[in-house]
């Protein structure tokens, strides 16, 4: 019987503290910010979609490369640079793993 009485006392305290927390939360209702639609500057609204992307610089570099070197040479250079960076990272990771 002692255990049941102790359990009832704990449950009663839990209920009371839960009620206090709910009342305190309602009284101190956090302020929720409202969403404000972000307006683009007038110069950006007139730009084509590909210039509004985060990778606009990469697109511009690719277009300039195509204009100067041609499509084939630009693709070869981009693939070569990508493979070089990927290989360098893989070898570096392998050497770091062997060092540890």
Q: Could you characterize the architecture of this molecule?
A:
It is a single chain. The protein has 100 residues and is mainly alpha-helical. The protein folds into 2 domains: 1-31; 43-100, no CATH class. 73% of the residues lie in helices and 0% in strands. The protein has 4 helices and no strands. It is elongated. It starts with a helix and ends with a helix. Keywords: Membrane, Transmembrane, Transmembrane helix. The chain crosses the membrane at residues 49-71.
Question: Which structural class best describes the helix and strand composition?
Answer: mainly alpha
The best one-word shape is elongated
**DSSP E strands, number:** 0
- Per DSSP, what share of the residues sits in E-state strands of 2 or more residues? under 5%
The end-to-end span amounts to 60 Å
Number of separate helices: 4
Give the low-confidence spans: none
The total tally of domains equals 2
Helix content: over 70%
Question: How can the largest sheet be summarized?
Answer: none
Name the average pLDDT. Answer: 83
From N to C, what is the helix and strand string?
HHHH
* Rg of Cα set: 31 Å
């Amino acid at each position: 019987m002692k255990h049941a009485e102790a359990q009832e006392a704990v449950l009663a305290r839990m209920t009371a503290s839960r009620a206090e927390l709910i009342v305190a939360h309602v009284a101190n209702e956090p302020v929720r910010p409202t969403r404000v639609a972000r307006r683009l500057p007038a110069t950006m609204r007139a730009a084509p979609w590909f210039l509004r992307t985060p990778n606009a610089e990469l697109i511009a570099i690719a277009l300039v490369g195509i204009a100067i070197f041609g499509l084939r040479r630009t693709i070869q250079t981009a693939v070569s640079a990508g493979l070089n960076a990927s290989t360098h990272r893989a070898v570096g990771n392998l050497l770091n793993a062997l060092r540890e």
